[in-house]
Design goal:
Number of domains: 2
Order of helices and strands: HEHEHEHEHHEHEHEHEH
CATH topology of the largest domain: Rossmann fold
Distance between the termini: 80 Å
Shape: globular
CATH superfamily of the largest domain: Nitrogenase molybdenum iron protein domain
Helix content: 40-55%
């Protein structure tokens, strides 16, 4: 009797371990570059994906170099999704090589080319900051849904349902952003930041952007750039300027000090998330939460 019970128990344990292993193997191992892309994949893939994001909160993707640990994650991935448009410029060679042996996608390939903005930093590549137009992010979501459906054909129905629900959430977010921003008088809708990450936001929600650096944080700015922005701020009587979580504060602080020397004390309106979201586990650590934080910060400072 004891032998029978022991053998039955062993069969139950073995079956349980086999089922757990099968479930774990069924999950698609996805590696993304930015937190925004990781959040997008998580919302659409749900429980059927296991996601690792290479770049955390406060990380500047323009300057990011892959570590040995990153390369290991990329080599072990079933699927790799990066932003593209030279956002991760120092990693492009890695993606090109890996695409010869596994599924590697640039998220920007899913955006209608006519919806992309030209970039002064790169002659042949548009502005990479596509996530700041929520409608473009809906296009990105559709592209990701197609990729995941192809990779996980047995879960197409779940992926389609997740995509539909998240797409509706983005529609509501887009409406909220527009209503919120339009509370600011048009003459005061001037967003002064360290680098030009908000071009898509400006176009979508009727805002002017004045930035010290171009779309790439590796670009340089000089005294002439500072002077031009100071003149705009004083002439337009702009109330606030903004720092960014992934860009050194010293650039905006130098602008603030220059204005003070001119007798125009301007405040720093708050910190915006530009090239990276907030810490994991926080509201700002999600795409929707990040967008809401940025908009609330801008509106409160410029009204």
């Amino acid at each position: 009797m004891r032998v029978f019970i022991r053998e039955k128990l062993l069969r139950v344990i073995f079956l349980s371990l086999f089922t757990s292993l099968a479930f774990a193997q069924e999950k698609l191992n996805v590696v993304t570059t930015t937190g925004m892309i990781a959040d997008l994949v998580a919302n659409i893939g749900g429980e059927h994906v296991r996601i690792s994001s290479l770049m955390g909160s406060g990380v500047d993707p323009h300057l990011y170099k892959a570590t040995q640990g990153d390369v290991s994650k990329l080599l072990n991935a079933d699927l790799i999704i990066y932003n593209g448009l030279h956002l991760e410029g120092k990693m492009q060679d890695i993606f090109t090589k890996l695409s010869r042996q596994k599924a590697v996608y640039a998220l920007a390939d899913g955006i209608d080319r006519n919806g992309l903005l030209e970039s002064a930093d790169y002659v042949d590549l548009p502005d990479p900051h596509i996530w700041f137009d929520v409608q473009l992010w809906r296009e990105a979501a559709e592209y990701v849904a197609g990729i995941l459906s192809q990779q996980l054909p047995q879960h197409q129905a779940v992926i389609a349902a997740n995509h539909k629900a998240y797409s509706q959430q983005l529609v509501e977010l887009d409406d909220w952003v527009r209503d919120s921003v339009f509370r600011i008088p048009p003459s005061q809708r001037v967003l002064v930041t360290a680098h030009d990450a908000f071009g898509y936001f400006a176009r979508a929600y009727d805002v002017e952007v004045k930035a010290l650096q171009g779309v790439n944080t590796a670009s340089e700015f000089g005294l002439h750039d500072l002077k031009k922005i100071r003149e705009v701020i004083i002439t337009r009587q702009i109330k606030a300027v903004f720092i960014e979580s992934s860009v050194p504060r010293k650039f905006i602080q130098s602008l603030q000090e220059g204005l003070l020397a001119k007798g125009y004390p301007i405040v720093i309106g708050g910190e915006l998330f530009s090239d990276a979201m907030g810490p994991a586990g926080t509201e700002e650590g999600t795409y929707v939460g990040m967008v809401k934080h940025n908009v609330n910060t801008i509106v409160e400072a410029l009204l």
